[in-house]
Design a protein that fits this description.
This protein is mainly beta. The protein is globular and about 40 Å long.
Length: 122
């Protein structure tokens, strides 16, 4: 079993930045595909960014050019650098991992973190 623990969330003003981290423990595999999803109250969980074992990345349209997903395999840690934050980015952010390629359009993964709250005010 893999455990994922997110950190780095908090409150920021529009235009600010936050860096989220996701520490993996237990049985980890650098070949896992990993992703960030988010969910705002009353809304469906949506994909934000994904990175596969070859370090190829993909992003939801609304965060392209603002967010950057990366990973450090040696540290078993996933990151999400969020710049130029907007109020629409307010949500609970979840780290996810899977043995298969994660599709940001579908909120399916093998493992999920507990989430970290991001609140962006105007």
């Amino acid at each position: 079993q893999v455990q994922l623990v997110e950190s780095g969330g908090g409150s920021e003003q529009a235009g600010g930045s936050l860096r989220l981290s996701c520490a993996a423990s237990g049985y980890t595999n650098s070949r896992y595909c990993m992703a960030w999803f988010r969910q705002a109250p009353g809304k469906e969980r949506e994909g934000v960014a994904v990175i596969n074992s070859a370090a190829s990345t993909g992003y939801e349209d609304s965060v392209k050019g603002r967010f950057t997903i990366s990973k450090d395999n040696a540290k078993a840690t996933l990151y999400l650098q969020m710049n130029t934050l907007k109020p629409e980015d307010t949500a609970m952010y979840y780290c996810a991992a899977a043995q298969f390629e994660i599709d940001l359009r579908i909120a399916y993964a093998d493992y999920w973190g507990q989430g970290t709250q991001v609140t962006v005010s105007s």
